[in-house]
Amino acid sequence: MSTYLVFALKRFLQFLAVVFTGVSASFFIAHLSPISPVETIIGRVSGQSAFSPEAVESLRQTLTELFGLNVPLHEQYFNFLRRFLVGDLGPSLLAFPTPAMKLVGLALPWTVGLLTLSTILTWLVGNILGGLAGYYQNSRLLKAFGIVAIGVQPIPYYIVAFLMVIIFGFLWPVLPVSGGFAMNVRPSWSPEFVGSILLHGILPAASLVIVGLGTWFLGMRALVSNIVTEDYVTYAELAGVRRERIVSSYVIRNAMVPQLTALAMSLGGIFSGTIITEQVFSYPGLGTLLVRAVNAGDSAVVLAVSCVAVIAVATAILLIDLIHPLLDPRIRVE
Questions:
Q1: Buried (b) or exposed (e) across 179-207, using 16+ Cβ within 10 A?
Q2: What is the DSSP letter of 184?
Q3: Would the pLDDT of 317 be above 80?
């Protein structure tokens, strides 16, 4: 077995350990909630019509068995692990008796699309501009962009999102500020529906890009400012290598590796920012679903969203970790 395959196997085992730990922590945290799904349903049903005490008690026993709460916590945990492996985390309170994973499956594509587009765009544009700013340090335009990046970078996601809602929803109403698509468009693969999705995704994606751009720009500029003083860059300049080739092949390429590591470390924060942004724009993704579930005391949906988030972030980190040795041969894979 090659060295890289051994390295990949070790990383995969670490991935399984991270997922197991994260999923287990999500289970116990969800069960610390004082809100009981059984009592929530009974209270909702009792508020709509009158029931005899015997009927209420019978309903309570049935629901307790349905949610698997009639056994000790450790047995609930092992039952949860078995259900988790087959993708069944129980019914949702938001849309009882719809399975919680079905609601997550409906919301997941929206978050994946928004997160993938905004993350890739932010990372690429921020690193390219930061690399150019670090190499062409006398450029007035790039200096001005750096000043703007320093001012925008500390601003939280939700502040930028609220500002965009005010500007493009009220002061200059040219873009939709809520929803995933227009209400009068029928969901299908038609150009009208796809165009509506893209139009409604502009502001949520832009709010994530604007905040994240400064982080990658400043980090890349600092890295490149150190790399341009390296001997191999100086020798390339003295040898008459074109400046465009020096920037792309010698400077930015070497600075991309630590930025790739930073991307893996920041994925959790980016996902959290996406959840907040979705809530501001009423975007039909996991963020909106999670907030609704928390407000309704729907522990099944909260647990399902948490598990999916753990798996998604851990998978992305695993892929980035496996790509690292392929981009930089200096990294040892023992």
A1: ebbeeeeeeeeeeeeeebbeebbebbbbb
A2: T
A3: yes
Q: Are 321 and 264 in contact (CB under 8 A)?
A: yes
Backbone angles phi, psi at 32, to 5 degrees: -80, -10
pTM exceeding 0.70: yes
d(CA 205, CA 44): 37
User: Is residue 65 assigned to a domain?
Assistant: no
Q: Cα separation of 30 and 52, whole Å?
A: 31
Specify if 323 maps to a domain. no
Q: What percent of the chain has pLDDT over 90?
A: 1
Instruction: Compute the distance between CA of residue 59 and CA of residue 224 in angstroms, rounded to an integer.
Output: 66
CATH number at residue 172: 1.10.3720
Reported as a single tens digit per residue, the pLDDT across 26-71 is 888 877 776 666 666 676 666 666 666 667 677 777 777 766 666 7
Q: 179: helix, coil or strand? A: coil
Whole-number Cα distances in Å, 185 to 20, 192, 197, 286, 311: 41, 7, 10, 22, 33
Range of the domain at 145: 115-295
Domain presence at residue 282:
yes
What are the pLDDT digits (tens) for 252-281? Answer: 777 777 787 777 777 766 777 777 788 888
Q: Answer whether residue 272 is part of any domain.
A: yes
Are 123 and 264 within 8 A, CB to CB?
Answer: no
Question: How many independent structural domains does the chain possess?
Answer: 1
The CA R_g of the chain, rounded to the nearest whole Å, is 25
Q: What is the pLDDT of residue 311?
A: 87
